[in-house]
Design a protein that fits this description.
about 300 residues, Aminopeptidase, eight-stranded mixed sheet, 9 helices, globular, disordered N terminus
Amino acid sequence: MNNIHATYPIGKAGNAWGKAEKDLWLSQRVRQRSYDVDVIKAVDRLRARFDVSEYGRLDYDQGCFPLLCVRTREWASELPVMLVTGGVHGYETSGVHGALRFAEQHLADYAGQANLLVAPCVSPWAYECIQRWNPDAIDPNRSFYENSPSGESAALMRLVAPLRGRFVMHIDLHETTDSDESEFRPALAARDGKVFEPGEVPDGFYLVDDTQNPQPAFQQAVLAAVSQVTHIAPADAQGQIIGSPLVAPGVIEYALKELGLCASITGARYTTTTEVYPDSPRATPEQCILAQVAAVRAALDYALGHG
């Protein structure tokens, strides 16, 4: 039998973490970058052109983090509403900076066409510490459901709740990294008292569609735009990406609502989760950001043309 402890240095094989293990895990997290410098100051520079608001505030022992969103200023009741989210997993850097880059360079292009809402960094503590979970060892992107234990998820759900039924599109920006296999999946197995089973990190960009509401033409339109920026991930030897069968080149499906994923929160017709591979020898950090921007623009353009 595989030994979880040999794979991850916290916890005992077969035993889920209790408070002591979670406290030990948290004590080992280190702040590596600044949410204030990288995100808040970037959002502040947008205030002259767009509406910026604080939709929540996370008060942790490690600090207080205001949660910011950016809206198109010409908000009109007759226009469709579209949502861009980044940094649900704070360590997935291009999701945060792709959302910010889109807001800075392209948000104004959609004035008069759609009401756009951008939440660029849903998980600021995890952004600073380059982590998947929040300080309570909870994965926000498995926590988008009623009475969520994740403050990050609960705040975003409160933001979108008054607009449910009006959303046409929601794109959630993510990465799949080498650290998924070296750190985050082993930590998950240890936390839950399970055996870690190694997987394969896909080399390239791919999308996650909704099993309950598949939109294949929408996904392919996004991939076509991204393919002009970076390469699309191929299937592995089993015809899968991260354990899920491909439903089309570069596309897998998850049951978004059942799994408590961010892309389930709006009820939009068109939803997708992006995944780019920043550790690829064939991609740079800048390419990953540009791929996220291309995905957002293609998603918006498709939704506007097919709403």
